[in-house]
């Protein structure tokens, strides 16, 4: 047998089922006609009355699958026929989606109206992730469907399993018209999901400036509200969204707000190495000598990550070269740990102390030798530092040979 595509097999199966149903219906009608004629005493030449077959009251899994498939593809007449034949309008797929979830997500407004007008499906029905059809329509940005669902009683404040409201999903995908509609219908701007993120957080991390402006114009807290999570500005920096960073700073966001680990937006930028965002933060008043929970400054993190441009900007902005973290390490120690040759050379050029010791008395040369970081080791030796005996012993080991 020739191997057919899944779509062709599906169509053949539907054709087979429809033909089988027609044959079965014909046989039932013939038997019913004969019995009805005998009861009424009708002759062969008299008019015959064809009784209607009863509508089935139960549906098979195949019928429910056909309804879900037709809903996804927007087949209005097929959905109408299946509903008339008794297929349950609240059938569910493997994710718990009902036909109403499917048509709301896909943007089939006539089918949304048909399903709700049938009275067989609840407008706030939830799938296995506790998302309602309104969640799905807002995620996809179908404004007309969201408006109709709200008119029919959909709740704009119901939360998914992750604590997100429909406004979270609209903001996360940049659907400003849908977000405006939800705000007009009483959506909560300061609602926080399980990450303690508000809709503004999601708009900022996605770089959706229009949605961010809309939320801020309607009173959203530019710092992300209470709860101790990361601020929208910090998420925008982490995501590398230059436009969101610019917008939030312009709207009054503080560049020095600390997150859960004590890190500010400048700390995060030092990790990502984005010089454009770094310049925006510095222009917005970011402090360069601020420390996080481990007492590390942005320069510590930039030296460890290896961004030469960020290290230079921080040094020129006045960051202390000998600032110590909780382990009493300097930025030069961090450069040695990361085997970052360029940042180590730059720190030494601006006067970093080459023999500074950390909590256990180790210098940057110790750390580079112990880890086999030959690039930084070469830079430190070129600086003229006296090699400690521990470093000499390490260099004599075969496995530590620098290539």
From TrEMBL:
One GO MF term attached to the UniProt entry: NF-kappaB binding
Stored SMART domains: ANK
The organism's place on the tree of life at top rank: Eukaryota
Start and stop residues of the ANK repeats: 95-119, 129-161, 162-194, 195-223, 228-260, 261-293, 294-326, 327-359, 360-385
Stretches of the chain forming a coiled coil according to its record: none
InterPro entries tied to this protein: Ankyrin_rpt, Ankyrin_rpt-contain_sf, NF-kappa-B_inhibitor
Signal peptide start and end residues: none
PROSITE patterns: ANK_REP_REGION, ANK_REPEAT
GO BP terms in the entry: cellular response to tumor necrosis factor
Annotated GO CC locations: cytosol
Keywords in alphabetical order: ANK repeat, Repeat
Pfam family, one: Ank
PANTHER family: NF-KAPPA-B INHIBITOR ALPHA (PTHR46680), NF-KAPPA-B INHIBITOR CACTUS (PTHR46680:SF3)
Name of this chain's protein: Ankyrin repeat domain-containing protein 65
Species of provenance: Alosa alosa
Organism ancestry: Eukaryota, Metazoa, Chordata, Craniata, Vertebrata
